[in-house]
Amino acid sequence: MTTAPGPRAPAARHRSWPRCRQCTGIALDLGSARTRAWTSGRRGILDVPTVTFPGVGGTHPVQRGTIVDAPGTARMLHRLLGRRLPRFGRPLLILTTPALGGVAYRATARTAVEVLRPHAVLTVPTARAVAMAVDADLTHPLLVVDIGAHLTEVTLLTDGAVTDARHTALGTTDLDSRTPPARIAEAVVAMVTAMLDQDTTAQTLDALQRGALLAGGGALRPDLTYRLTGQLHAPVQTVPAPHTAAVRGAAKLLQAAHTHPGLRTEGGRAD
Hints:
This protein is of the alpha/beta class.
């Protein structure tokens, strides 16, 4: 007599961090002035200067949104994160990247983060990470203005993908008596105007009328936000804790991605 097999037991549900003890992950935002990271199992965000080593003589391996010293970046990451990772196991890593960084930036960044022994490296445009941090509605075009210490970037997202982007090598560290806040505001307006002029679909206009998201350390300056609102003639929404928005958005994506079965096996890579 043959007995029919019983119902198959349901697969165990993959736990989210920090309860998932078998998984490790890193969300990383490499800025020209500050590096911010979130690691699985930790509540806070690591926020430190982007320098090869602290003290006199330390160099800046990331400048104006470009990794100019990959070995130096690797040494910095090892110093900051090497001891914070489990001895065994390889983390899933999500890295924010400038919208115009391109293949060259991602290749250099991958070389630098290899020091953390990731089993998979996912990259996400900084603007999309900012949008994820605030649960922005990505079913409509979205304009993201990111004013950093050394770089200001304006990005148009359509269905969550980058469809246009502009940047200028100008940031908050450049502000002084000869470079007032109006200079950055004027640069942002010029970039948005160029996007409007070249957009034949009216998506940029739609995004602008809905209101731009403002992130980066520059968003903490009321003089900048006031000028942008007036000169863009459109609403500007400063995201909460704008200086850490990108890494928080990357952390959200990380927590969702780590449950994907294809990314829990070592050796995988994805963009």
